[in-house]
Amino acid sequence: MRIPGIGTAKRVALEVVGWLLVVVGIAALVLPGPGLLALGAGLLVLSQQYEWAERRVDPILLRALRGAAESVETWPRIAASALGALVLVACGVLWIVKPAEPGWWPLSETWWLPGGVWTGVTQIFSGLFALGLIVYSYRRFHGKPEARAALDTDISEADGERPPRRR
Q: Do the Cβ atoms of 64 and 58 come closer than 8 Å?
């Protein structure tokens, strides 16, 4: 769905941002970072231009919320998620400080903490973002089975399915 009156430069900028977020989201599905959220944000931007993207926004964002809800179902999951986020922040600090290559490192010095400062900054950002998502998810879903059930119903509706039966 094209927006009438939108300038060419703005339309191109939205497409570049949308596709960049989609690519980052896909990469973050296997790398550290909020992959489904970035993918959803990219599709949200692209949905201003394309109907196919608009149809995919809700299912992606709802699945991201399901993952967030699952991450705070039990205390071991909460602890593991928080620990993973803190380790990511610590690794980011390590990348920024960039200590000398240790004696046990078997590869060339160029392979010790590659990427430089910006790798560390993105790791810290990802870890802090993850901690924020854990807090948000805890407040919204922990100990609230009705919120999880409503989310499952929304996912079924977005997929065009009938809601699952509750026993």
A: no
Single-letter code of the amino acid located at 16:
V
What is the span of the domain harbouring residue 112?
74-141
Based on the fold, state whether residues 149 and 67 are members of the same structural domain: yes
Domains of the chain: total: 2
Tokens describing residue 35:
């992959």
User: Could you tell me if 15 and 59 lie in one domain?
Assistant: yes
**What is the predicted pLDDT for the residue at 79?**
94
List of the chain residues with pLDDT < 70: 1-6, 32-33, 161-167
In angstroms, rounded to a whole number, what is the distance separating the alpha carbons of residues 20 and 27? 11
Q: Are residues 35 and 61 in the same domain?
A: yes
pLDDT tens, 27-49?
Answer: 877 776 677 778 888 998 998 88
The Cα–Cα gap between 153 and 166 comes to: 11
Query: Rounded to two decimals, what is the model's pTM?
Result: 0.67
Residue 95 contacts residue 119 (beta carbons within 8 Å): yes
